[in-house]
């Protein structure tokens, strides 16, 4: 079965500085990987996805993630944080064996003015 | 923009009482999911419907939880009786076809349950 580990439960950054959210995955088969964002009192929204095409994936709102098979990682980055990026971020994995989505525990991002 | 509708947004109940949550997916989405999100954790799938049929309910505590999607459109998740450990956010999501394969699920804003 597949699983993900989000290495940071909370990340605090200053507005205008880079954001890095770390995610490691475990999968027996070729995985598909996703990042979802959840703003306070809102539903989860898909940020970006990797499905075995380009290893550098660009998403909405300036976010991107790089799939590194050798490191079993799928870290999420943004060059310059905005106040509106304050939210909960979930790394998610699925594979062709299970077809289920497995969510990480989430990383809370705080953006300081 | 089409959205997944859920109600109620908040529910406070006493243990042993019955509670029900309702979800209306995006029009045309054949697949509907109910997830439970305990505070500080990621969502966990409770049940998945394809039209009116249950595709996966392996993680649904069937002694107290039930879910239905009678006409393949909206869905109801029921808990009877509620227990303290059921306090969580209940998320409904929908997708076109097998959204699980592409990860493109559309989530509602959730129903937060507090059991006293």
On the 0-100 scale, what is the average pLDDT of chain B? 92
Question: Roughly what is the average pLDDT of chain A, rounded to an integer?
Answer: 91
Total strands of chain A: the figure is 12
Structural category of chain B is: mainly beta
Helix content of chain A: under 10%
Question: Would you list the SSEs of chain A in sequence order as H and E?
Answer: EEEEEEEEEEEE
Classification by helices and strands of chain A: mainly beta
The residue ranges of chain B in which pLDDT falls below 50 over 5 or more consecutive positions are: none
Radius of gyration of chain A: 13 Å
Describe the biggest sheet of chain A? 6 strands, mixed
| Total strands of chain B | 11
Sheet-strand content of chain A, in percent, reads over 45%
Q: In this structure, how is the largest beta sheet of chain B organized?
A: 7 strands, mixed
- The value of Rg of chain B in angstroms is 13 Å
Number of separate helices of chain A: 0
- Overall 3D form of chain B: globular
Write a short abstract of this structure.
The complex is a heterodimer of chains A (113) and B (116). Chain A has 113 residues and is mainly β.
């Amino acid at each position: 079965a597949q699983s993900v580990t989000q290495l940071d439960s909370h990340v605090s950054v200053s507005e205008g500085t880079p954001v890095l959210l770390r995610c490691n995955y475990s999968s027996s088969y070729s995985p598909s990987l996703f990042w979802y964002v959840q703003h306070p009192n809102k539903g989860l929204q898909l940020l970006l996805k990797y499905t075995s095409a380009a290893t550098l994936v660009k998403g909405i709102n300036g976010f991107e993630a790089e799939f590194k098979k050798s490191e079993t990682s799928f870290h999420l980055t943004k060059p310059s944080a905005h106040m509106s990026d304050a939210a909960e971020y979930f790394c998610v994995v699925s594979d062709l064996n299970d077809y289920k989505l497995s969510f990480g525990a989430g990383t809370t991002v705080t953006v300081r003015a | 923009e089409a959205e997944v509708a859920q109600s109620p947004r908040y529910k406070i109940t006493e243990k042993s009482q019955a509670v029900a949550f309702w979800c209306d997916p995006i029009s045309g989405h054949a697949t509907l999911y109910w997830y439970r999100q305990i505070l500080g954790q990621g969502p966990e799938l409770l049940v998945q419907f394809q039209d009116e049929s249950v595709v996966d309910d392996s993680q649904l505590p069937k002694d107290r939880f039930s879910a239905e999607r009678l006409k393949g459109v909206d869905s109801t998740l029921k808990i009877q009786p509620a227990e303290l450990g059921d306090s969580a956010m209940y998320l409904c999501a929908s997708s076109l076809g097998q959204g699980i394969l592409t990860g493109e699920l559309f989530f509602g804003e959730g129903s937060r349950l507090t059991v006293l």
